[in-house]
Amino acid sequence: MENENILVIDGVSKQYPDFALQNISFQIPYGAVMGFIGENGAGKSTTLKLILDIIRRDAGKILLFGRDNREGKELREAIGVVFSELNLPEAMNALQVSRIMGGIYRGWEENTFFGFLRRFALKKEMKIKAYSRGMKMKLAIAIALSHRARLLLLDEPTSGLDPVVRDEILDIFREFILDEHNGILISSHITEDLNKIADYITLIHQGRLLFCEEKDPLLDKYRLLKAPAQVLELLPPGAVVGKRENHFGMEALVEREALARIQLPENAAADPAGLEDIMLYHVRGGRHERVTA
After folding, report:
1. Among 201, 77, 88, 87, which residue's Cα sits nearest to residue 151?
2. Percent helix / strand / coil, the chain, rounded to 5
3. pLDDT of 12 over the 50 cut
4. 93, 129, 187, 283: which could form a disulfide with 44 (CB 3.0–4.6 Å)?
């Protein structure tokens, strides 16, 4: 099974004085995109740093391409990384960036990099300090895709970008994943983007894994119920992920199969739930806990 996955995280834990990542396990098949979601401070960035071996795990194992992630530099060279901030001196330009990356990555492809610069309309001589946020993100993506990476680790790559630029960047990721030997782990708060590109969704909360599921069955699993509160009494235990009550009634995230077994009153409605709904109710609600509006 391990050789079917480009990334395996198995029982990984990391302890800090004020936070703990606890027994996290999930895997990304070759040719797939994993959306990684959770509130700020849930442990997403910690997980990415553990994959990159920037910090050392306390327990568990991490496999990249079937090998322990601490085995050798060549494994890290096969990972393209895009963080929410571009960590390069702003006095540099793209020409200087290419020379530096050529010294870091044995597989650096200058022609590929310059090709992305042309595609993104980024001038080689322009200093990074003159770039907009969108331009900086495009530069980071050009770097990540110019050293023969097979796995992309993306931390909020479309945050703060306008819809046109976001869609352009998602197209790049779609092209990358057409190669069935590649894979993507994308951490993002923009669930709309994940809905467009992700095959799987992993949700963590306060350092714990809440679920890891295929996206389409996950979306089909739940309905957003708007109804009088007493309707919940008709549902079996465990069918309600969370609920929100206000002066106008009640809204709840409910398992679709359980909902299909009851007759809803005329003043009730059950609509498809989005990724954001599913995340919020799992994180804030808990099973049968009240969520204040």
Report:
1. 77
2. 35, 30, 35
3. yes
4. 187
